[in-house]
Write a structure and sequence with these properties.
Low-confidence stretches: none
Distance between the termini: 14 Å
Mean pLDDT: 95
CATH architecture: 2-Layer Sandwich
Helix content: 40-55%
Length: about 210
Amino acid sequence: MIDLKVRFRGFLPVAVDVETGGFNADTDALLEIAACIIEMDDDGRLVPGDLVMRHVEPFEGANIEQAALEFTGIKPDHPLRMAVPERQALSDVFQPIRRRLRETGCKRAILVGHNPAFDLAFLNAAIARVDYKRSPFHPFSSFDTATLGGMAYGQTVLARAVQAAGLDWESEEAHSARYDTERTAQLFCTIVNRWQALGGLDPATLAKG
């Protein structure tokens, strides 16, 4: 049986979701970020691991579209939101990922997201804004559960792909970084495990490469 380091060629999959003040990563606020490290159990199956989530203070001069707040339900000025600055949010999210990289021997984390170009763009923009020097993530590679969901179930919308995979979906919980990250991680693991169960990957061949 192969281990996690070998399974993805040295990459550690980490499901990520961000909630934002709009669609422009350079100008719009990052408001929430969550990350769930993907693990491998003793039977070689992928399982969602630890999840960390932070509410994020909008950076100075950040744009926040009212339509985005209505979509997510986020209230940036709510006194109980307990938001932290972008640098602290990134540090809190990255610390357990770096620790897991050392433990597994993986070289880099790779973002697992639903249409991940959006999440990766906001993540990279925040990294650049605070001049963060040690991001564990590959700067442009990612795994897309929209593509995988379309391949496995004929569904590209997260809610529909999750339900097609036989997983629970609570609409009232959606569009929070924590919930969407949890479901994205579960969907990714379910698809990869199903592929493996169908004989889609020869561990011996992978180990030789």
